[in-house]
Amino acid sequence: MVRVVRTAQVDDAASNVKKLSMLLAAIARGEATFRDFRMAIVRRIYLREQQNYNFYIKKYKFLDQRKRSGDVTVTLLAGAHDYAWRVVFRRLYEYSGDVDVIVINPGGLKSELCMKLSMDYGWSYFESFPNNITSAENFVIRNIVESDKIIKMDDDVLVTKNTFKNMLKAYNVLKEEGIELGFVAPVLNVNNVSYYYFLKTLNLIEEYTKLFEKPHIYKHWSRQKIWYDARAAIWIWEHSIPLNTVAEIFEKVNKDAWVPIPVRFSISLILFEKDFILKNAYGLVSPPPRISFENLRTEGSYERAYMIPYTDEASFNYYSDVLKRARVLVLDSFAGHLAYVPQKELVKKWFLANEKRLLEDL
Predict the structure, then answer these.
(1) Residue 278: Cβ-neighbour burial (10 angstroms; 0-12, 13-18, 19+)
(2) What does the alpha-carbon distance between residue 322 and residue 317 come to, in Å, rounded to a whole number?
(3) How far is CA 308 from CA 25, 46, 104, 192, 317, in A?
């Protein structure tokens, strides 16, 4: 594997030298300027540094309990919602079957607890420094995951009995039909896109509109109540349980149905192929590590588009668009996503008061 990577780097270097030589020749012909040449140099240096940084890990710990029994691996990204782990981990255990699960804990939040839960459930555990979510994901996907397909989920997602089963079924059917995929996702109840299909499937659009606002997909999430209003999230959750009962409705009403995802999707839970980000790209674009700061995103906040994708979510969506890969919402697959950052504190209180209800359908 090392030789392949080195060969690719040599080929890239040769290509870059050729392009720069062509640009110098263009300058000599008066078709370009030295400012263009300088920008080309700067761009290539930056891209090379970013490509390497995407996989940067100073130190890590990996406890290996892989069974290597299937063609899919679940990576559970922990480190943000430890209050929910008891429920999230339990539900994942019930519905992951013989699939390998790797818990990724960048920065080691509640390290002992997270490690113990992982070991008790028979899962592998990865912890890294610095606390960089995206580089940890890249490192695990490139160096540890052996399966072709990966299900990535966050530690505030509650899966149901049909979540993985129907995601995988839809993925395989779409591939057989010749559709080139970026990723597929289930209907998540609290999500800036799929909440519309949650409401539609359960005939709740009219009631939601009266209580909160007309549900839209084509609207920036910071101006959607499903993103910033905790009352909307809690109302959605009250209509989501028992989770498996609601999942049965989705499986009946939306059997084998799917729709393309038309705008940027919040990737709390997605299924994709390893080659999608390693063969067709240089991994997910990694920002600096997480540090202590106040959340600056608020209701209606203004957001400027980055010149390159930034973070795992932006990368998945950007690569899908650039590589012309479909982003697909599987309508008969259902899971629950607890909340977005502005909703977190109130939804956390609701969650802690309703833990038993969130496990009673197992």
Answers:
(1) middle
(2) 9
(3) 29, 12, 25, 22, 12
For residue 161, what are its two tokens? 């009995």
What is the spatial distance between Cα 126 and Cα 108, in angstroms, rounded to a whole number? 9
The amino acid sitting at 174 is L
Residue 171, helix vs strand vs coil: helix
The pTM (predicted TM-score) of the whole model is 0.90
CA dihedral 196, 355, 266, 238 (to 10 degrees): 10
Residue 310's CB is within 10 A of a number of other CB atoms, namely: 16
Q: b/e for 131-152, b at 16 or more Cβ within 10 A?
A: bbbbbbbbbbbbebbebebbbb
How many Å from the N-terminal Cα to the C-terminal Cα in the chain?
A: 43
Could you state, in chain order, the average pLDDT of each consecutive group of 10 residues for the chain (362 residues)?
39 70 85 85 90 95 92 95 97 95 95 97 97 96 97 98 98 97 98 97 98 94 94 98 98 98 96 95 91 52 68 95 97 98 97 98 96
Burial of 305 (0-12, 13-18, 19+ CB in 10 A): exposed
Tokens of 310: 């930034």
Within 312-361, strands assigned E span: 326-337
Place of tokens 């761009």: 43
Element (H, E) at 75: strand 72-77
Phi then psi dihedrals of residue 144, to 5 deg? -120, -45
Closest CA to 95 of 163, 154, 156: 163
Instruction: Report the amino acid identity of residue 43.
Output: R
**CA dihedral (176, 178, 183, 187) positive or negative:** negative
Query: What pLDDT is attached to residue 174?
Result: 98
Q: Could you give the CA distance from residue 1 to residue 5 in angstroms, rounded to a whole number?
A: 7
Pairing of strands 326-337, 157-159: antiparallel
Whether the Cβ atoms of residue 308 and residue 197 lie closer than 8 Å to each other? no
Q: What's the CA gap between 141 and 143, in Å, rounded?
A: 6
